[in-house]
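hey so i finally got around to running the thing on that chain from the lab meeting. sorry it took forever, my laptop kept dying and i had to restart like 3 times. anyway pasting the input first so we r on the same page abt which one it is
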Amino acid sequence: MAKRSKSARRTESKTKSKLKPRPAAAKARGRSRTKTAAANKRPSRARIAKPRPNIFLGVDVGATKIGINAIDQTRTPINPNWSQVPAFTEQGPQKTVEQIVAGVRLFLDENNLPVSAVAAVGLDSPGPADNQGVIQPSANMKHPEWAGFKLRESVEKALSRALSHPVTVTYENDGNAAAFWESFIGNPEGTEVMAMLAPGTGLGGGIVINGQLLRGARGMAAELGHVEIAHDPFTPGSQHQPCGCGQMYCAEAYVSVAGLQKALPAALAQDKYAGHALLQIDNVENLWKRRALEVRPLAARGDALCLALFDWQAQALGKLCRQVADTIDPDRIVIGGGFIEGGQELTDRILRITRETFEKLAFPKHATEVRIETAQAADQAGCLGAALSAWTSVNAKR
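ok and heres what got predicted. didnt touch it at all, straight out
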């Protein structure tokens, strides 16, 4: 066999050493360096980002109850039904704020929503109140502590504590909130001029122009229930009673439950109504209010006196529609509130008389072109409009 050279033997030795398996300790050191590098690598932001709050609560504070619902980022209601709790406004503002917190908790529980889902809250209440939700004295908020109470600020603090994170609360009066939602669902493009009239305990109103609420410099615009009209008392020769605000001829003094309370004593004193069903309601607290609240169901059943009272109110409403048309030149006027919740037949009658009165009084172009329609969202309009106000406040910042 031929001898290999020294250089060949050195090359062969180096090659074998390269092919030998690495000692275990060396492998361990390599793995350790790899783990250390992995540990020092920062996780991506996508893995640790928290879900964005995505619901906007609406809280509708009425004289007797509080209603709560919400919309999502697409402005779709979370639930077709709202959650309700008593308002206890007669016990003062602090009790009502406690009830608002209780109502929000109830809504979240009933819809299996975490508190972290709440992006913002919209709040509405009967007016008058300013842009910051500072309440002015009214027939709906009778407790003396309501005067000057900072409702929006108080609710914002209470909900931020209850939900364990800062919560922005916006405020609208109930008429504005209802108008905002009715305009959105009827004209989501935001291209109309619209007014809403909502007779109930009082007479709320709201105006929306091209998708924007007309709030005014202080948030007290569109108090349409306090526009004055010329309208005879229901009972000829009787003394007309003033509005709860103190003025004599506000539309609210005619077209509201409060207006019925004032018209009923003279009406029922007439001999032809002796023994009327309303007189059977007796020896109860708030007697005339209880009787006034029974007018609508009796009218729906065809009672002559109660139908006549609704006809009288519808004529007054038609006169108010003329004033509204002359002021803002609207595409449509929407009628909502408890006034139109007596069944289809009664509602059709109210709308017919309202339109007929309006058309007799209005300028010809208004008479033929202004649409007078019933509200679509029923009693949730204010609640969902408040939620839409919260949605708008958040999305306007983005």
